[in-house]
Amino acid sequence: MTLSTLLLSTILGISGCSNSSNTNTNSTANVENHDGHDHAGHDHSSHSHTSKAAEQQQKIEELSQKAPAQVLPPFKFYKVKSGISFTNDDIPKGKKTAFILFDPSCGHCQIEAGQLGKNYAKIKNVNLYFISMNDPALMANFLETFGKELVGKPNVEVLYDKNQDFIQKIHVPKQFPANYVYTAEGKLQSHWDGDKKIDFILTEYTK
């Protein structure tokens, strides 16, 4: 499945930490109710924009309703620091793997990174990958700023999803951060999106 450029830009343009933006339910009614309305010289471009935005939002909602990949599919991401490609074959064997789809500007993502850093001793045996489709320049110092205890750890990596493999092959979440925990055999154990208490996250990562 290939997402349209407009849909992708909508996902990348998420404000805050949510894919679900509030739409004005009155806008459609206002457009349809033209009784006595003078159309002369009226610019309808805003109506068209509203309609397209609503369609894209609906598409995101439909995609996010689909269950995540039950078995981890082939993917190719890129290490933010080095630009070196990172695929399924690069995941250390015999450990659970947790993917965190995030936006560097998302406050909840920043908080989760900090909480995980403070509890690193409890997750040192879990492969932990922060993944984003954002500009690598915006991701470069994410851990240094918000999860400094995770910097340089052998089981932690920040990855750039250059080709949008995650949302096309694994899942489109409703909110950031979105967490996906896969077993050592590559099977989906659990997933959730949005902010959660750190005790819940640690339990899911290590149970």
TrEMBL record:
Pfam families referenced in this protein's UniProt entry, alphabetically: AhpC-TSA (PF00578)
UniProt-annotated stretches for the region Disordered: 23-61
Compositionally biased spans, kind Basic and acidic residues: 32-46
Keyword Signal recorded: yes
Annotated signal peptide: 1-20
UniProt KW Signal keyword: yes
InterPro entries: AhpC/TSA, Thioredoxin-like_sf, Thioredoxin_domain
Transmembrane segments: none
Domain Thioredoxin: 61-207
This protein's UniProt keywords: Signal
Name this polypeptide is given: Redoxin domain-containing protein
Organism: Sphingobacterium bovistauri
Organism placement in taxonomy: Bacteria, Pseudomonadati, Bacteroidota, Sphingobacteriia, Sphingobacteriales
